[in-house]
């Protein structure tokens, strides 16, 4: 690397990079200055995920694994899950699992990826908490 200079103040050496555009900066002050103008997120063209779902029959043996619309809504509302899905690699992974002919095998592979077990755990905990409230006896 030729220069390790902060691209904002051009004075100090940079220590951090903007999570969106990877512009190097030295301090929070410089980062705030940088964020005064919206920066371009680095998303190469091939990263764009088409959301066309494959034609595949829903094969679920256990009906309680099918999520109700209220559960899906809870998942959609969960900030943690939405944050996790900002990760383009995770998006690709989920899409891959969803679109391949052998989802279980892909899921097994995905579980070895850093962060993925935590992500599924987040979804499961949302789903479980919903189930628990449903199962509470209404006396
Ligand atoms: Zn700086
Ligand atoms: Zn930036």
Task: Write a brief structural summary.
With about 140 residues, the chain is mostly helical.
Task: Map the helices and strands.
Elements (H helix, E strand, L loop, with lengths): L15 E2 L6 E2 L2 H8 L33 H9 L1 H6 L3 H12 L3 H9 L4 H20 L4
Antiparallel strand pairs: 1-2
Helix pairs in contact: 2-6, 4-5
The protein binds zinc ion (ZN) (2 copies).
Instruction: Please tally the helical runs, counting DSSP H or I stretches of 4 or more residues.
Output: 6
Output the radius of gyration.
Answer: 21 Å
The low-confidence parts are none
The helical percent reads: 40-55%
Number of strands: 2
Count of separate structural domains? 2
Bound molecules: zinc ion
* Shape, per Cα inertia axes: elongated
Quick one: biggest sheet? 2 strands, antiparallel
Beta percentage is under 5%
Mean pLDDT: 76
GO cellular component, one term: nucleus
Protein name: HIT-type domain-containing protein
Keywords: Metal-binding, Zinc, Zinc-finger
InterPro entries: BCD1 (IPR051639), Znf_HIT (IPR007529)
Structural summary, described in words:
The protein is mainly alpha-helical. It folds into 2 domains: 1-42, no CATH class; 45-135, no CATH class. Helices cover 46% and strands 3% of the residues. It contains 6 helices and 2 strands. It has helices at 28-35, 69-77, 79-84, 88-99, 103-111, 116-135, and strands at 16-17, 24-25. It has a two-stranded antiparallel ribbon with strand order 1-2. A hairpin with a 6-residue loop joins strand 1 and strand 2. Helix 2 (69-77) packs across helix 6 (116-135) and helix 4 runs antiparallel to helix 5 (103-111). The termini are far apart. The mean pLDDT is 76. The structure holds zinc ion (ZN) (2 copies). One zinc ion binds at residues 6, 8-9, 12, 25-27, 30.
